[in-house]
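User: New here, any thoughts?
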Amino acid sequence: MKTSNLLRGQVALVTGAGRGIGRATALALAQADAAVILAARSADEINSLADEIKHHGGRALAIPTDVSDVAQVDYLLVLALRAFGRIDILVNNAAVVQPLGKVWETSPIAWQKLIAVNVIGPYLCARAVLPQMLERGSGRIINVSSAVAERNLEGASAYNASKAALERFSGTLAAEVKNRGVIVTTFRPGQVDTSMQAEIRRTPAHLFPKVARWEQVYAQGLLHHPIKPAQAILWLASHFGHDCHGQLIELDDPGFQQRVAADLGG
């Protein structure tokens, strides 16, 4: 991979950095010489990841954060700016998938919490980092979505609704910062081999009728390894993604995969 020094001098904030796509993305950005701020509720996981990055000569700061809590996000920004002075890249990756089940069978509290994490979280994080990005006239915001944003996937009403809302938020944000140096992109990573995928596969069919399809995709080895979307996010965060403002990018687009492979040497 031709990624060494690709992000030298830049600072990235990755939410949901403790596992899966977030963890792989943080490692990819660190390997490209960015300083990485790791945000997640799982303190042990992000502290371990920060130690791993530092062990390999990188710069990392783990800040346990619930992105749905405005006070915690504001404090995250304070600590990040105190440590590194700036944030150039925001990867809004944190998300939850529960509750799964028919609308009338789900917990209102769990439904609201999912929306808080998957929709309000990206808003709070973008709101926090944008003033200093706009003042400099540069920055990258990458919002990690899903193809379910445009699908009526039974048993996943909260998750479907959250990703549809995230995509409209992302597009609106792109319109609001147009021509101000901040590039906002919506990214769909496809189906990736993560703990969230495993959680879906463990869901009883009466709650999630399509679970057999998820099991089949896993059994056939068709899930992306987290490294693949991580490399795509790295590409979007770098100068290669300069023309992706306001766009919806899908990892499963062969043309996009070819661009990433050609530019990063994968």
